[in-house]
């Protein structure tokens, strides 16, 4: 599989502040309904192959899920399909919340 980078919940705010990042939540609709990271694009993992072209290939892409497993699959897939600056949020939204990150409805 193609390479992607790992980013921690503590590193993510700095990357997001650049304004050149698309944050992609690959959890299910039911999981997303319990809260998400603000500004995230909601794109459940099973829809990624059909909607990958909807993402901006010119931006850094950070995928996240509940704990980091599904988003690692998404990041590997996206990188293999040609997205060049791809990250997986280590520990997912759980790590984000534990680090004090805001969760929005």
Question: Can you describe what's shown?
Answer:
This protein is an alpha/beta fold and 105 residues long. The protein has one domain: Oxidized Rhodanese, domain 1. The protein has 5 helices and 7 strands. The strands form 2 sheets. Strands 1-6-5-2-4 form a 5-stranded parallel sheet. Strands 3-7 form a two-stranded antiparallel sheet. The chain is globular, with a radius of gyration of 12 Å. The N and C termini lie far apart (34 Å). The model has no long low-confidence stretch (mean pLDDT 96).
Summarize the helices and strands and which ones pair or pack.
Blueprint: E1 5-7, H1 12-16, E2 21-25, H2 29-32, E3 36-37, E4 41-42, H3 48-51, E5 60-64, H4 69-80, E6 86-89, H5 92-98, E7 103-104
Q: Can you summarize this structure?
A:
With 105 residues, the protein is of the alpha/beta class.
Specify the biggest β-sheet. Answer: 5 strands, parallel
Low-pLDDT sequence parts? none
Helix count equals 5
CATH architecture: 3-Layer(aba) Sandwich
**Please, how many domains?**
1
- Write out the strand line-up for the largest beta sheet, numbering strands in chain order: 1-6-5-2-4
Estimate the helix proportion, in percent.
25-40%
Using the CA coordinates, give the radius of gyration: 12 Å
The amount of beta strand, in percent, is 15-25%
CATH topology heading: Oxidized Rhodanese, domain 1
- CATH C-level label: Alpha Beta
Mean pLDDT over all positions: 96
What is the chain-wise order of helices and strands? EHEHEEHEHEHE
Per the principal axes of the C-alpha atoms, what is the gross shape? globular
The fourth-level CATH homologous superfamily is Rhodanese-like domain
Distance between the termini: 34 Å
The computed structural class is: alpha/beta
β-strand number: 7
InterPro entries: GlpE_sulfurtransferase, Rhodanese-like_dom, Rhodanese-like_dom_sf
Protein name: Sulfurtransferase
Pfam families: Rhodanese
Domain Rhodanese: 17-105
């Amino acid at each position: 599989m193609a390479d992607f980078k790992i980013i921690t919940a503590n590193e993510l705010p700095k990357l997001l502040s650049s304004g050149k990042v698309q944050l992609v939540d690959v959890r299910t609709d039911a999981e997303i309904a319990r809260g998400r990271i603000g500004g995230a694009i909601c794109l459940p993992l099973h829809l990624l192959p059909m909607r990958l072209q909807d993402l901006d290939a010119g931006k850094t892409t950070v995928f996240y899920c509940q704990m980091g497993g599904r988003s690692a699959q998404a990041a590997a897939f996206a990188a293999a399909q040609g997205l060049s600056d791809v990250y997986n949020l280590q520990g997912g939204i759980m790590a984000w919340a534990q680090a004090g990150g805001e969760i929005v409805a």
